[in-house]
Amino acid sequence: MNHYPKSILNLIRSISKLPGIGEKTAERLALHLLREPKSESDLLSRSILEMKERVRLCKLCFALSDDELCGICSNPSRDRNAICVVEQPADMVAIEKSGAFKGLYHILQGVLSPIDGIGPDGIRIRDLLTRVAKGSINEVVMATGTSVEGEATAGYIADQLGRFPVKVTRIASGVPMGGDLKFIDQVTLKRAMEKRHDF
Prior knowledge:
Mean pLDDT: 91
Number of domains: 2
CATH class of the largest domain: Alpha Beta
Number of helices: 7
Structural class: alpha/beta
Strand content: 5-15%
Radius of gyration: 22 Å
CATH architecture of the largest domain: 3-Layer(aba) Sandwich
CATH topology of the largest domain: Dna Topoisomerase Vi A Subunit, Chain: A, domain 2
Largest sheet: 4 strands, parallel
Shape: globular
Number of strands: 6
């Protein structure tokens, strides 16, 4: 790799620090950028800088936003009586892409993890409780992951919400559409059997 000029080596090292990017991919991307017109590199540089300068957390749901309120929280057509609780912004994006939920979100920015020293004050549970305490929320949909931490977080929040007149639901989990049962893990199959419903 030392046969490249120092400027290219620096770029390769920087790109390879990105998640999922190994040295070979970083090398390929650096050489691609070298071949592109300078205007494309300038656009990429400006986009990165603009993102770093502008992006913040929505003051209501804690999604990524360029403004005080994200596009979902500022959209008057959303159902303001339902909140879907997720772990991270990417989880909200996944649900939005499905088109299955038309309410608002609350992004915890993590999960409870005592081993890592993350307790209730380490994520945005208090902010959720404050939103629900205002009284306009009818349903809170728990859409945290099915990991031990995700389940513990959902259970803890559901327990805390017990003091409010709000319906608390949990997204279903189990066998995915098109899934072949012989390839499904035992925990997922057990959950699917426990959550079965009328046909």
